Automatic annotation (TrEMBL):
The lineage of its organism: Eukaryota, Metazoa, Chordata, Craniata, Vertebrata. The gene is Nbeal1_0. The keyword Lyase does not apply. The keyword Repeat applies. It comes from Mesembrinibis cayennensis. This is NBEL1 protein. GO terms for molecular function: protein kinase binding.
């Protein structure tokens, strides 16, 4: 599979799906759901220029430190000594892929709506914590080193999860009083289908093809554990 990918016989999307499968990740287990990278950092421009390297996320860094400002806090957390010596050191107390994160992204489609309601003791979580906007979700990642969610494959092929087709009452945001309905898209996307089309195009772009292996090292490769993980600020609780 690696050789096929290097020879460009399979797409970046196919390669990631196959890697996830080999790593034991599956759509049948929310705790081991396939994981995909955030690949863009520009969610505010009117047009998306895939020839400009500045629109892409730095794939060599874990999502928690893509914003340099977070690196200091992340290092401090790692250097904290557990007085009882029970807990191993870590940079992040949460994970880039977990069941709650999958439900967070897929809240508008069943069976994930029902699973989310069960998780929240029989009701929707408060609107401010819902997945309501792609630009706002990215901004939260940049501002908060404790939020380290990567993406799920649906961001590259499934426009329906961005629409509230079932008309669920997801509440309204506290400050702006905005009603949470369809997911707010980046300015450069004119519809959920347009977002998926451009996002998939970005995934297959020359820039991502040249740098995807750096992210794979963090998630599936040698930077998961040991000294390389410490150096890459990539140690999870």
């Amino acid at each position: 599979v690696l050789q096929k990918w290097v020879n460009r016989e399979i797409s970046n999307f196919d390669y990631l799906i196959q890697l996830n499968t080999m790593a034991g990740r599956t759509y049948n287990d929310l705790a081991q759901y396939p994981v995909f990278p955030w690949i863009l950092r520009d969610y505010t421009s009117e047009e998306l220029d895939l020839n400009n390297p500045a629109v892409f996320r730095d794939l060599s860094k874990p999502i928690g430190v893509v914003n340099e400002k977070n690196a200091k806090a992340v290092k401090e957390k790692y250097n904290f000594e557990d007085p009882l010596g029970i807990i191993d050191k870590f940079h992040y107390g949460t994970h880039y892929s977990n069941a709650a994160g999958v439900m967070h992204y897929l809240i508008r489609v069943e069976p994930f709506t029902t699973l989310h309601i069960q998780l929240q003791s029989g009701r929707f979580d408060c609107a401010d914590r819902q997945f309501h906007s792609i630009p706002a979700t990215w901004q939260t990642l940049m501002d908060n080193p404790n939020d380290v969610k990567e993406l799920i494959p649906e961001f590259f092929y499934f426009p329906e999860f961005l629409e509230n087709q079932n008309g669920f009452n997801l509440g309204q945001l506290q400050i702006s009083k905005e009603v949470v309905n369809d997911v707010v898209l980046p300015k450069w996307a004119h519809s959920p289908e347009d977002f998926i089309y451009k996002h998939r195009k970005a995934l297959e772009s020359e820039y991502v093809s040249a740098h995807l292996h750096e992210w794979i090292d963090l998630i599936f490769g040698y930077k998961q554990r040991g000294p390389a993980a410490v150096e890459a600020l990539n140690v999870f609780y």
